Structure formats: C-alpha cells, structure tokens
Amino acid sequence: MEWASALSGGLRVEFRVLAPNSRFLRSVAAGELDLGFSLNWQDGRGPASGLEPFVWISRLPGEEGPWDRETCEENISRLARGGMEAQQALALNQMQIVTINQDNTLAIINPRVNMATANLQSVIPLGGTPLGASLEEASGLLFLIQERNPPPFGPGSTSRTPGAVGEGSARGELVTVDLNTPEIRNRMALQAVPERMWRDPGTGLLWVASRDGQVSLLDGHNARVIRTLRQTAGYVELAFDPQAGKVFLADGSRGEILVLDGKRGEPLGSILVQEAPLRLAYSGNTGLLYAVNSREGGILILDPVRLQQVGHIPLAPGTRTVQISPDGRFLLALFPEKRALAVVDLRERRVVQRGQTSENPGGLEFSSNYGYVHDLADSYITLFRLVDLGEGPVLPVLKVPVGTKGEAAGEVPGELPRLAVLHQHGGALVAHRTDRMLYHYMEGMMAPMSGLRIQTALPRGVFIYHRRMEEAEPGHYLGRVRLATGGLYQVLFHLPKERASACFELAVEGTQTQERDQAQILTLLLRKSGQPVPGKASSLVLSILDESTGDFLRGLGDLRVMAFATKGNWQMRAAALEVEPGLYQVSLTFPRAGQYYLLVQANSRRISFGDLRHAVVEVKEPSGQPASSPSGG
User: Which of 31, 99, 163, 395 is most buried (CB neighbours < 10 A)?
Assistant: First the structure.
C-alpha cells in the first residue's frame, strides 16, 4: 500500500500499512497488521520525534470520503470525548484496566467512561482457576497459570506443548491472552497444577513451579516448553539478572542455589550455602545476590560470578517478602507478625531503618515516587516516599483506608496482584473482592479518590495496560491491530497538544470464508427471558437466524454480547454460552429501568458489532416503583 499523506498542525502525516514482519504490502487483507505513521515538521526540522499520537480505526458502513477537514475534525472530536462511538472504535492509544475475577473470568475495562458499570468492554471465560499472572506491557500479552476445569473449552484449547500429556489428563494450563484483540491467543496444557510463575524481565520467558516440585521454562508467545528442571522438595524462589542473562533458583529444602542460563535454562553453576534460603533478591546496583532465611533470620550476600558467599547481614526471622528498591540501593523486608518493614542499606550491609505496616501485607509495589504495601486483612494501603529510604532510623509511612470490609488471608488460591500502580498519573488501583470494587487512590490524598463498582464479578487481581503507539525510529510510529473482516475502514490520527489531525481510508480485502459468511442474511433474535429489573443479573437467551437457509447458527464458542442504553453512554459486554443447539445464554446487569439495545460479535464467523440489526430489551422497575431513564452519567 502506497503512502497516503495529509498536512495539519505544521506536520506532514504519512500513513501506510505493513505486515507484522515490516514487509511492504501492495494490498491489505484481513488479519494482523501494523499501521505506520511517519511525521515530519513542515518547517524543515525533520522527523517529529517524542510525540504521543492517538489513533482510532473503525469500520465504515459503505463508501465514504474523501475526508474534508471539517468532517475529519468532527469525527475525531467525538471519539476523543468517549461514549458509544469511541467504545465501538478500536483505539491504538488508551489505558485499560484488566481484572481477574472470582468466577474465573477476565474482564477488560475502559476507565474513560464515567459510569462504573459502563466501563466493561469485554469478559473472557478462562476455563480454570487462575493461580498467577504476569503482564508483558510491550506486547499487551497477559500470561496466566491456572488449574483446569475439566473439560477444556474455548477457542485455541488444543495443546501445543511438545511431549505434553493428553488434554484429558492435564491438570494445569498456561493461558496467553492478547489484550489488544482481546482474545485468548493460545492455551498450553501442563501436566501438574502450577503454583507460582515468574517472568524474566530480560528474556520475557516464563518460569513455572508446580505443586509436585517441577520447575519449567516456558515460551508463552509460542506455547512451548524450553526446559523442565529436576524436581524440588521445598518452596521455590527465583531472582533474575537481566543484564547478564542469568536466573537464580533456590528451594527451601537444600543449601544450594542454582545459576541458570536465562534463555535455555541450562545450569551454569551453583552456590553452596549453609542455610536453606527461602527468599532471593538481586541488585543490579551492587551486582550481588541476596538470600534471606525466613525461619532462622539473616541475609547471605552471594557473588554470582565467583559462585561463593561474600558476606552476611543480620536480620530478624519472620520475613515473608523481600524486594530491592528501584535504584537498587536498598533491600526492603516485610515482617507480617511484627507489622514491620525493615530497610537494609546494601552498601553499608546493615538495617538502617524501620517502619510500621498493617497485619497482613500482600506485597510491595513501586511508583516513580512512592512505595506501596497493600494490606489484605485490614483493607489499608501503606505508603512511603522513596526519597525517605535510608533517611533516619524511622521510615515515615502513611496508612490509607481502602474499602469497608477486611479480607481474610488465604481465602482464595493463588498469588494475583491486588494493587496496580498508575505510573503516569501518580496513584494506584486496588482490587477489593468483598466490596466488589476497584478503588482509585491518588498520591497525596488521605483516602481513595473514587471507586469503580464491579457488578458482574468479584475482582481477585488487577492490572493496568497502557496501549501505545511505538516509535520504531525517529518520527515513525507503529501500532498493531487485528482486523477480523474485510471492508472499508476509517483511520483517524490525532495529536492533541500539536492540534494536528488526519483521516485516512483503509480498504481491507476479505478471505473466501469471509465472503461466504458475508453473503449470509443474519438476524439477531431475543428468544426468551424473564422480565429484566435494574440492579440484578438478568439471564437472556439469544439466537442468530440465517434467513437464507432458515437455520440458526450453532457452535459459536466466541459469541459476545454488547448491551448499551438508548440514551447516554452506558454499555456492558459479556460472553454468551450455547446452552442448547442454536440457543445462547448471557447474563447482564442493567443499572436502571429503560430501553437497551443488544449487539453481538463472533470472530469465528466474521460477525462484528454493528453487522446485525440490534435487539431491544425493556428493563422495568419492580411493580410499585417508578421507572427512570438509563442515560445516567
């Protein structure tokens, strides 16, 4: 496809489409594509680097264009404000909230919409109980380990693991979710139930420890096992040296720490120690490894190059969590029973500071200015400023109440992050399961700023995903999209600070299968349901009729339903399950009485939201109560 160009805001904006391998495309077919934008200043300054462009892409119902300046800016203004049009367009630069829920689903939420229930963009059934998760920001892939719910179901459930056991006997699973699509990219069967997972910050590979003591190195992108290590008999702990490409592995049953190659998992050596270390931490600042014995106390200082112990730091027993500060200078240790936090200066090799926390700390997270300790039992978060580390014997802390009810420790399985740091905005989101809320805390405040009520599920874990255009080279920005169907699309480009905007048309060719599906005449039917009432889950049953044959579509394992208010910007999306051949059941919670529209999507049959005429649902207050409009904000 040749470059298309436009002039705006003192910039020349050029646009074209590339294949994911950066191959030049003369024609564009449905699938995974890279949208490329080249920006150059018109005054001769050269490439416009360091910018943050916003890009939307949406399907056009028919032939439109060419774009005039007024129409282009009007469309971009509507998308920038949010609302229904922005929700249906694919945005290549936005923040998303991802929750892992008690009902074993994954929810994707757009926080720009002002109503909490309107934030839900997509719900993905996981088919198992999640026990751990890790987000790869660069690719938008979320990796989850889980205990499987037999039988396996959902798209991509075929195991791709070389030498793996059969689907029927596999007890664990690695699930890779693409948040850009969003969809499950692949599932990989694991022989044993996984217990903990680490992602190597250097290689991006995954290390998984199972309940039977097996430790495996996995490639989550390609769903394959790289290496399986010998079984261990104790609590497994890993630490990473990204620069040297090394991984350190210890277990609580023996006085030995293995040094492994980060890419292949092959042993490079071992460090013998007298005590069995239970916690590991590596500091890039000192180039040393630190092993903490929770039962006996003390920190062993280990040289990973000479493979020997080079020092010892006294530390009281009882620590559960150890972590290195962002600058690599301090080691922080949490003591749940003492409700204390110890700060160890790694240069001076001693405890230099102590602070108070709550009873049941869930872990340590860092923003650019603060450290966070999330407490699960008392519904508090404890904050401290990073600049205060090492300054005086007492670490000043701030306890902020989050939620109305405490959560019992160990009530749910696995290790999922309850707190996600908002790095760009200076704050955090806290998932509170018993309150069914996501609390938003802004740094400097004494209480949460706001909260998002989750009506569909109890959140067990939360992630923040910032989808961005990547500057591949100075002035050249790339964003990857997956277009399931052919047709005519509009691509809208916006730089708010520079007041530059441009609109382009993108003609996408469909495959033979897509052309066959598009030749069908499909109608969405609301088959049967009780009377939906506000604030309670309503079960609806839908069918899709092919009027060319008179048959109902069967076997749609990826059918999703979007409900939205006829007034205002409320919307909700959920997965529908086939309960009988051609009958699909979905559970939706409507916020208030009024009229709502239903749209459906099924990527397996190339059905997008808006392809089929909507169905209408009337939500009424229980008898004796007045009705209200669903247009609230």
Answer: 99
Q: Which of 451, 478, 510 is the last residue of a domain?
A: 510
The answer on 606 and 564 residing in a single domain is yes
DSSP code of 216? E
Q: The tokens of 431 are what? A: 């998932």
The Cβ of residue 165 has, within 10 Å, a number of other Cβ atoms equal to 14
Q: Is 546 exposed, middle or buried (0-12, 13-18, 19+ CB in 10 A)?
A: middle
Confidence check: pLDDT of 630 > 50: no
Co-location of 518 and 505 in the same domain: no
Residue 169 has pLDDT above 90, yes or no: no
Question: Token pair for residue 56?
Answer: 């939307």
pTM beyond cutoff 0.85: no
- Residue 110 located in a structural domain: yes
Domain count, the chain: 3
DSSP assignments along 357-377, one per residue: --SSEEEEEE-SSEEEEEETT
Query: What is the structure's pLDDT at 500?
Result: 87
Residue appearing with tokens 């409507």: 590
Give 497's contacts (C-beta < 8 A, 6+ positions apart). Answer: 51, 52
Residues 500 and 457 in one domain: no
Q: How far is CA 252 from CA 66, 193, 414, in A?
A: 67, 19, 19
Q: Which pLDDT score, from 0 to 100, does residue 119 have?
A: 57
What are the angstrom distances between the C-alpha of 615 and each of 92, 562, 581, 583, 620?
29, 11, 20, 15, 17
Shared domain for 86 and 98, answered yes or no, is: no
Do 458 and 474 share a domain, yes or no? no
564 and 615 together in one domain: yes
Mark whether 485 and 563 lie in a shared domain.
Answer: no
Helix, strand, coil % in the chain, rounded to nearest 5: 5, 50, 45
Kindly report, residue by residue over 404-452, the tens digit of the pLDDT: 766 654 455 668 888 999 876 778 888 888 787 888 888 888 777 777 7
DSSP 8-state assignment for residue 319: -
Name the phi and psi angles at 413, rounded to 5. -80, 165
The label of the residue with tokens 């059934």 reads 125
R_g (Cα) of the chain, nearest Å: 26
Is residue 600 domain-shared with residue 506, that is, in the same domain? no
CATH number of residue 500's parent domain: 2.60.40.1930
Q: What is the pLDDT of residues 485-540, one digit of tens each?
A: 677 888 888 988 888 888 888 888 765 444 444 446 788 888 866 789 988 888 89
Q: Is residue 141 part of a domain?
A: no
Structure tokens at 588: 């939706």
Output the DSSP codes for 80-144: HH-SHHHHHSEESSEEEEEEEETTSEEEEE-TTSSSGGGGEEEEEE-SEEEEEEEEETTTTEEEE
Range of the domain at 430: 94-125+413-467
Of the pLDDT bands very low, low, confident and very high (cuts 50, 70, 90), residue 19 is low
The span from the CA of 488 to the CA of 503, in Å, is 13
Q: What is the pLDDT of residue 455?
A: 57
Asked if residue 631 is part of any domain, the answer here is no
In a domain, 74, yes or no: yes
CB 494 within 8 A of CB 584: no
Q: What is the domain-level CATH number for residue 548?
A: 2.60.40.10
Sign of CA dihedral 294, 296, 299, 305: negative
